[in-house]
Amino acid sequence: MNVFLNFKLFAPILLFISVFCNASTIDPPIKSASFYEYDYDCDLCGCTTGSGSFGFGTLNNANFVGVRYINQHFESKNGIFSNSPVSEETFNTYQLWAQVPINNSIYFSANLPYQDLSRKMDGTNENINGIGDANIIGWFKLPFYKKPVDDVMEGMEKEHSGHSLQFGLGVKLPTGKFEEALVDRVNPGFQVGTGSVDGIFSLGHSFAGNTFGVNTLLSYYLKTENKNEYKFGNQFSYSTKFYTAFPIKKTMLMPFLGISGDVFNKIEQYGETINDTDGSILNSSIGTELVVNRCIFGVNYTLPISQNLFGGNVTSKNQLSLYFNFAL
């Protein structure tokens, strides 16, 4: 129900966007499916239970500025018995995000979220909200070209093979508030921010053919101790997504399927590890993008395949992402 209420808030904005995109006289950046590369996924959520299934980029490889809404649901069991109380948690995230080029090989991506988190347990409601942790990542793209078949092609412009590697190095900033009083929750991810400066290291591979593409990304998040001597566990994320493209006049429809996962190390407090604060999750995802002129609309739905979070006490239910970008 909260998703529909939030959608009603965005309805006037989406209506304006639709009119603006259809009124644009700029032709869409559509040549063929090989023009698109499936951009990489990065876990940039400040929450410990956030997964890598929500990317920092989009299916469209264009540089952009945009907004994104993410809705996540969790259940946390407070006890070891079958009748132990269970809390229902909803994480709503509203993001400003962008991808800005420096040159053909180097570009930056940035993200500033606003978090609105709610929790229901035993008839009581709890809510926290505020600016979350901002982040910025620098990317270097290394494309691969086809080998010339004869001497005549040696002097010609190189032909792209469709394969490329991406190297990312970034930082997450403690712009979100960390509340020490919340660390006793079963789900430690119930925080607006982590209060720490964290490093982000990524390696990705992309292939874009004429009608089909695939992208794989490996990311490692090196987390540091905050001023409260609390340190979220380091995290390894992986993601692979497959997509195809259907050009329709001046639009492009791009459906995709994918899998992603995360492995979390244990949380440390006052220099000691906390039991049952590690875990792993494997997700499936389905979604699509619609490109109209310079406007990019996207939706991504994620459902867990298997998981073991915080000793089995926290369960990720489902996740939904909606976004609108304007290509630069």
UniProtKB/TrEMBL annotation:
Annotated keywords: Signal
Signal peptide: 1-23
Name of the protein described by the UniProt record: Transporter
Species, as recorded: Neotamlana sargassicola
Biological classification of the source: Bacteria, Pseudomonadati, Bacteroidota, Flavobacteriia, Flavobacteriales
